[in-house]
Amino acid sequence: MISRHQFVDPSRDWQARSGQLMYRTAKTTLIGEVLVRFSKTGEFELTFSKGPGVTLLVLRQNDSFAQVKGALARIGWSGPIDRAPKQLRGWLQLRDKIIHAPDQKSIRHVAGHETFLFRL
Question: Using one digit for the tens of pLDDT, what is the confidence trace for 31-54?
Answer without folding.
Answer: 999 999 999 999 999 999 998 889
